[in-house]
Amino acid sequence: MMKKIFLVVLLIASQIFSQSFYNSRSYSRTIFFPEGHLFPINFSDPLEPKIGTQFYLDDKSLELNIGASKDIIHHRFDYWNKVGFGIEFFNWTLLNREAEFRFPVIAADYLFGGYFVYYHNGYKIDWANRIRITHISAHLSDGAYSNQLSQWKGNRPFTYSREFVQWTSTFIHKNIKLNFDALYLFHSIPEWKYNTIFGFGTETILIGFPEIFTKIFSGFDLKFQKVRGDKFETNKNFSTGFIFGNEELPHLRIAYQFYHGYNFHGQFFNQKLKQSFINLSLVL
After folding, report:
1. pLDDT above 50: residue 231
2. At 29, is the secondary structure helix, strand, or coil?
3. Fewest CB atoms within 10 Å of the CB: 4, 168, 194, 282?
């Protein structure tokens, strides 16, 4: 009798372990140049690459954005755990709107770098982590110079460079994403007294219209940093609008944005900006 029970238990155990092995083998795979992003970006973060423009509502300026991030490789270990690696490039340019369809460039900033992502599928809440290593440089251009006066308008150009590592941890539950950020500047010109920035943000799909592939979203990004003094000051960016397509794949967004904080153009890094935008962006 004991032998029969032992054989039954052995048979059941072998089936369970063989099935587990099969499942892990069937889920384990590597994909080069996959579609979409493993890490769910927060559109409200001004330093997330996108293509498009945002029109200032309070003056005659606009931003021209040219950039994209692309996952190069995904590797799935099992149903629960995935990793990925990608690269990103981003140029955001400040222009003036003038007569005769002229748009002189005031300032241009360049970002490039790479990132590593770890994604965990949970039972109710997914957990995504991204580490970015990024370089930013900033420049003034013709729109910041007065030919009549033969001098720069306001700021004179100076060397500006930032290299930083950023860790973002995101918790995802259904249509809600909650982000936490920590950023360390390991090299900067000009130097900052304090080299750390931290913050948090969120993005929510408020309602969807699947028959026309459209969703209404809202989100914000909040960063704490020290630039000119010993106390933390905030950079706040709020967005709300429409997503056309699948937000996990290349898609189009039309949104209202409000930003209040330090200028995101490096040549004006120690100046405050309070501005509303209408943003039209293609997120690749």
Report:
1. yes
2. strand
3. 4
